[in-house]
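Cross-check.
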Amino acid sequence: MARTALVIGGTGPTGPGVVGGLLERGYDVSILHGGQHEVDLPGEVRHIHADPHWPDTLAAGLGHREFDLVVAQYGRLAVTSRVLAGRTDRLIAVGGAHGSLAHPADARWGPLGRPVVPLEDDEHLELDPDQGTLAFKMAAAEQALFEAHAAGTFDATLLAYPVVYGPRQVAPHEWCIVRRLLDGRRRIIVADGAVRLESRLYTAHAVQAVLLAVDHPVAASGRKYVATDDSVFTMRQRIEFVAARLGVDIELVDMPYTLATPCHPYWRHGPDHRLRHNERIRAELGYVDTVPAAEALTATVDWLVEHPPSPGGPEETRLGDRFGYAHEDELIARWESVRRGWSDASPRFKATHAYRHPRRRGETWSAGTDTSS
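Predicted model, tokenized:
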């Protein structure tokens, strides 16, 4: 008799890939989703239409069904863990790579605060609801998942994703840039040099992470894995790549983050870096990037060009980008006016070499030493 699997959220950008991988592994697959939209899936895949966000609606949708494996990619982790208790042997859940982390000033991070790249073996979850209700709830859900695992309710694995990009995304962040270029914009407002870094995960790599957890039940038992692309690029690199893909020349107009409001929807969480390591999933499950970064971003851009979100439609609403070009032009003009009227007569900084490079015996270090020596 075939093993049974349920995929919660099987119609999103990663759903069909996960479903296909499970079918290849011999599972009898069902998907549970809200029914708002459908995707092409093999005919043998059963569809359960139910809202997974609430215990009563999820339980009603499941009825008396039980599964050997559940992959929960949608809904609320706390609800999923509670309702699936006693209904499955394994639960592979998807959460966020940053959302549940303790706030940067939490004393557990140490006197320097939260590292720019928190380590998986030394991460701390949010325990104070006053620091952020969502972060606190996400952390509590993670803890409840692994408490259920420890109690033998089911065998649990948590995959923690940063922002996911690729075709069919419901909030396609690259659209903030692609639409502007398609609309003829050639001056793009950026913040703080556009050197901000963030970990991201291509949809095909997210699918790989799930299937690796499926294939390694012993190693993945009771483990949390941060899944990210290996390579990280600056905002500037990504914006310039998008422009090159669309065959246009652009000028990046750099402003301080607090003034560069039109770029905030693309920056999303503020000016700070958002980075995570992926060493654990690489070492324990054998994760590797299967799609080169340039190919992944190319596929994302091409999809958006071929399937542009409707102006003012759901995708743009989720992004929160107003595409207010008149405001952007006014902001650029005001910023350029400020810069024209600003001058700094202080001597320019000149880098010097920290070590002595004498040209003659006995010569001591001096600030005038040629740094190119």
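DSSP finds 13 helices and eleven strands in the chain. Residues 369-373 have pLDDT under 50 and may be disordered. Passed to J.P. for a second look.
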